[in-house]
Amino acid sequence: MDIFQTELALNLTFTNKDLLQRALTHRSYLNENPAHLLEDNERLEFLGDAVLDFLVGAWLYNRFPEMSEGNLTRLRSALVRTESLAEFARQIDLGSVMLLGHGESEGGGRDRMALLCGAFEALIGAIYLEGGIPPVQDFMDPILEIAADSILSANQDRDPKSSLQEWAQSQGHGTPYYRTIDSHGPDHAKIFEVEVFVGNQSLGHGVGQSKQSAAKAAADAALRSLGLEY
Predict the structure, then answer these.
(1) pLDDT tens digit string along 118-173?
(2) Residue ranges of the domains in the chain?
(3) Distance of alpha carbon 95 from its chain centroid, rounded?
(4) pLDDT digits (tens, 9 = 90+) for 176-230
(5) Which residue from 62, 64, 129, 175 lies 20 to 30 Å from 96 (Cα-Cα)?
């Protein structure tokens, strides 16, 4: 990795270059390169996830002063979900600079949703450790401005899982329960199958490349079976 070219490509500058390199290092690279001195990006991914939750919530609070708490929550969920973060990563071509193992790279890992989402979260964690919240805000503000407008115009802030939960509660039922009933395929391309229950009744079944996306598909199927829209 040419760290200076990577900084240029991402329009970022790090005093601690190791932070950026670690943010872009997937565990599959370490499996094939055990002499690599840095750890993988999973701890930075954990930190970046927390930073994004806070920062996106604060950004929405200030950007939409008249929006209700429920709508703010739905819009935040839409902005920080796996699909959105993976798309943000694509917008800055993050996949091209990730350090992946040969097998992961050959298997399409540079455009795999879960990997892109994780790398984006790790990058946010690295930016935070480098300079705190202000540089993360500078990096995220233009991304959030475009994404929030797009989500609102397409009504993509409506989450089927939230809608199903609202329906279940309005009917006096408990919270919907999601159960992973199967997973298959290699680690770099695993497919999950999830079933959603309200009480003891199975209402929907979904398939996806992550448990989250499969659960969302299951909730969508449940709403359709109930004749409901979200």
Answers:
(1) 999 999 999 999 999 999 999 999 999 999 988 887 655 567 888 898 889 888 88
(2) 3-153, 160-225
(3) 14
(4) 999 999 998 877 678 999 999 998 899 999 998 888 889 989 998 999 898 886 5
(5) 129
How far apart (Å, rounded) are the C-alpha atoms in residues 109 and 116? 8
Helices 211-225 and 160-170 pack at an angle, to 10 degrees, of 50
Q: Are 194 and 178 in contact (CB under 8 A)?
A: yes
For this structure, is 149 an active site residue? no
Q: How many CB atoms lie within 10 A of CB 79?
A: 24
Dihedrals phi, psi of 33, to nearest 5 degrees: -135, 70
Distance CA 222, CA 191 (A): 20
Does 220 qualify as catalytic in the annotation?
no
pTM value? 0.71
Fold of 160-225: Double Stranded RNA Binding Domain (3.30.160)
Considering the candidates 45, 49, 104, 193, report the single residue annotated as catalytic.
49
Task: Show the tokens assigned to 183.
Answer: 């997973």
Give the CATH number of domain 3-153; options: 1.10.10.10, 1.10.1520.10, 3.40.50.300, 3.30.70.1130.
Answer: 1.10.1520.10
Burial class (CB within 10 angstroms; exposed 0-12, middle 13-18, buried 19+) of 102: exposed
Cα radius of gyration rounded to whole Å, the chain = 19
Cβ neighbours of residue 147 under 8 Å, at least 6 residues apart?
Answer: 79, 84, 87, 88
Distance CA 87, CA 116 (A): 8
